[in-house]
Write a structure and sequence with these properties.
The structure is a homodimer. Chain A is α/β, with parallel strands linked by helices and about 325 residues long. Chain A is built from ten helices and twelve strands. The longest helix of chain A has 25 residues. The first copy, chain A, is globular, with a radius of gyration of 20 Å. Chains A, B: This is ROK family protein.
Chain lengths: ~325, ~325
């Protein structure tokens, strides 16, 4: 049996699993939250303990790794993490290869999740697709001609930072009206917070206010979705802006690259049917009539990066 | 010697040339304007006469064709022309193969020009690039991994119809604030016309007005560029909006696909250094800091589609 070790260094979670090549069932699976004030060293220590617990002395044939931040996939070196300190220029591939004595392959989570959905999830049988995760951030990963397209500098897929409304609010990246600024979970919460803070305590947003008992600091993207589902007008309006921004982004991508399929994953995609309806309608209106595409939900959920890590290792073994 | 016949069906011009494989000099070259009220049949008749005049009884090994409109590159069937009537579903590849008894390869002008610049022009030595033509319309063609990327339905590259200003003016395609609506030659002229029509006959736009002796119908994109170069404030402002729109588009494309290079051709790219400066600055501001790219002018000018047609035929011969 050819054993693959799959690792997922997320922003807040660490996961590791083993699988036999060709199988679609984990042999073993471990997941931990990063501690508060995690840094690269604590993350690596926790991952080591997960790995040793999984392997128990056996040796994998290859290691595939999903990392939650920019990575040089050629060298397997992490550029940085936006969530965890100390990851600057860590040669993750080399570290793992030295420690476990087998080849390791590292790429960023959006690229790896795209690969996972393509090989094992919603993208099976499609030759070209764009996977988008809409969660704390908004990122994407390409499959073109059946293979990952990472871009000349490994930076392709940054749909979160394309501008869809130059008159929109300022994003963390410094620009106005990025998709991420309008569509991500934390910004949905922030937008709701700002509107509620300015409104007198009256009808619009009443349900939303109730969910946090007027403590606006407690607002999250998920609560905005819940309030919208319960009929809160203000929450619905804010969610629709999120769906609109992502819909324009997707329509623009369709015109530019014309993939067969868009796969959407991440917590915000659970915002309800109305969010999906607006998104699909705006994407369709933004794309040219002659440009065909489908938009579907991801199938692998939180395990997409781990399954993508398996695919990354399988690719390498097959070479 | 292996002889290639290259054809260019433009919106207003028809061109044909012959070249030996491996050579970068035309053996023979012919160019004609389409007549007023041209249709597919008159275009085909003129092209036939150009071809016979070029070949004089000799037979090419293959024919490469650039067509100014959407094409199904797999079958070589023209979908339509936005400029010339009667091109709907014309099987151009089959027609040429039946008539000349050699293989023919047909693709749309933006894809073919991208290939031409990649093989023989400004894109030599680059593995990934996006060619953009900014002229009557705004279109683009991809080279990824050293090969054309046409999209799942052959529609990739439509940067002209990505939305960069949702509050902008309405485009022919029905959306607001498309790149083409803000950046193309005819729309630059239209924008100038509209502003001048509303302004009293005073200083702003005075130079521009003078160039057409107050007959606003005579305004063209080129005249707006000339007025801007001569110091006309209004013309400069309108041109900067064009450069801004294209700059946002290019920055968005850089974030999404991360090609090494953008090559810009077409009449509007002759609008002067200020247009280029604004465009490059806005593109740089729109792209993420980590995303590197170059923006350079096309090298082959009006012959890019013809040289691309040569590359298309060479590709096929090499297979």
């Amino acid at each position: 049996m050819t054993l693959i070790l799959a690792l997922d260094f997320g922003g807040t979670k660490l996961a590791a699993a083993t699988v036999n090549v060709g199988s679609r069932q984990w042999l073993r699976y471990e997941r931990r939250f990063s501690p508060v004030n995690a840094n690269a060293n604590t993350d690596l220590e926790i991952m080591r303990s997960l790995i040793h617990s999984l392997l128990q002395g056996t040796k994998p044939t290859a290691i595939g790794v999903s990392f939650g931040g920019p990575v040089d996939a050629t060298t397997g070196t992490v550029r940085l993490s936006h969530h965890v300190a100390g990851w600057e220029n860590i040669p993750l591939k080399n570290l793992l290869e030295a420690e476990f004595g087998v080849p390791a392959y590292v790429d960023n989570d959006a690229n790896v999740a795209a690969l996972g959905e393509h090989r094992f999830g919603a993208g099976q049988g499609y030759d070209s697709l764009f996977y988008i995760t809409v969660s704390t951030g908004v990122g994407g990963g390409w499959i073109l001609n059946g293979k990952p397209w990472r871009g000349a500098g490994g930076m392709a897929g940054e749909i979160g930072h394309i501008v869809v409304d130059p008159a929109g609010p300022v994003c963390l990246c410094g620009k106005r009206g990025c998709v991420e600024r309008l569509a991500s979970g934390p910004y949905i919460a922030q937008n709701a917070r700002e509107v509620l803070a300015e409104l007198p305590r009256r009808t619009p947003g009443k349900i939303l206010r109730g969910l946090v008992q007027d403590n606006l600091e407690l607002l999250t993207g998920q609560l905005v979705s819940e309030a919208a589902a319960a009929g809160d007008d203000l929450a619905q309006e804010i969610l629709q802006k999120s769906a609109w921004a992502l819909g324009v982004g997707i329509g623009n991508v369709a015109n530019l690259v014309n993939p067969q399929l868009f796969i959407l994953g991440g917590s915000v995609t659970k915002a309800g049917t109305r969010w999906w309806e607006v998104l699909c309608q705006v994407a369709r209106e933004t794309a040219l009539l002659e440009v065909d595409f489908e938009i579907i939900p991801a199938a692998l959920g939180d395990d997409a990066p781990l399954w993508g890590a398996v695919a990354l290792a399988e690719f390498a073994i097959a070479k």
